[in-house]
């Protein structure tokens, strides 16, 4: 018999750890997005770690800006950024305040509220594709910059919360290079910081960084 996922909210000290500890430990956890139309819950199946000033792939590599301010803490808050002029991506801040580390939520399985997610992801061919990729995940959950800075560990009503769920056994966790990251940040020998659940159909395909071509 499959055990029912634990619905206890994760405490802030879960996130107040090094990013490389938090990232794989997020697999199997449940992210709940509360909307005016009802809740959507997602089981995390793929994430990427970003480690601030020590990481050339991180938005905080060159220091603090208005865009990345939330990354500097406190832990347990949501960092949302806008990319390619059309997509949002969602991260969870971790580590000690001031360190600017965060975990990008890359993919997951919608386990509650799929009917709501489908209305936002009309191009998805099936439910496994609803949150298969970071932009798709944010779109399915109706996450945008208005939720940047949300405290996912707050008590009471909050639009985003992380529950204990069912942690993935270590022998089912895989890791490798991060998707679409340029230079040393995308080198899997240096930063094998993408983590995913082995053989899970909701995990997104790996894609190496492709440099933009300048027009002649």
TrEMBL record:
The keyword Cell membrane does not apply. Coiled coil: none annotated. InterPro entries: Formyl_transferase-like_C_sf (IPR011034), MPG (IPR003180), MPG_sf (IPR036995). CDD domains: AAG. Residues 160-186 are annotated as: Disordered. Pfam families: Pur_DNA_glyco (PF02245). Its EC number is 3.2.2.-. Gene3D superfamilies: Methylpurine-DNA glycosylase (MPG). One of its GO terms (molecular function) is hydrolase activity, acting on glycosyl bonds. It comes from the Bacteria. Keywords: DNA damage, DNA repair, Glycosidase, Hydrolase. The keyword Cell division does not apply. Belongs to the DNA glycosylase MPG family. This is Putative 3-methyladenine DNA glycosylase. The lineage of its organism: Bacteria, Bacillati, Actinomycetota, Actinomycetes, Kitasatosporales.
């Amino acid at each position: 018999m499959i055990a029912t996922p634990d619905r206890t909210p994760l405490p802030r000290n879960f996130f107040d750890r090094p990013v490389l500890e938090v990232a794989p430990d997020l697999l199997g956890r449940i992210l709940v997005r509360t909307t005016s139309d009802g809740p959507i819950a997602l089981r995390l199946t793929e994430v990427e770690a970003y480690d601030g000033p020590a990481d050339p792939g991180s938005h905080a590599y060159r220091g603090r800006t208005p865009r990345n301010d939330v990354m500097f803490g406190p832990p347990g808050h949501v960092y949302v950024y806008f990319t390619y002029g059309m997509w949002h991506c969602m991260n969870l801040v971790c580590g000690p305040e001031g360190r600017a580390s965060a975990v990008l939520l890359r993919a997951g399985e919608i386990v509650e509220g799929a009917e709501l997610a489908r209305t936002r992801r009309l191009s998805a061919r099936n439910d496994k594709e609803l949150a298969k990729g970071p932009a798709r995940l944010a779109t399915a959950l109706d996450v945008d910059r208005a939720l940047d800075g949300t405290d996912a560990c707050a008590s009471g009503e909050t639009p985003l919360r992380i529950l204990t769920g069912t942690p993935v056994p270590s022998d089912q966790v895989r890791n490798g290079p991060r998707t679409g990251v340029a230079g040393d940040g995308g080198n899997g020998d240096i930063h094998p910081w993408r983590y995913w659940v082995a053989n899970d159909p909701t995990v997104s395909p790996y894609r190496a960084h492709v440099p933009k071509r300048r027009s002649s």
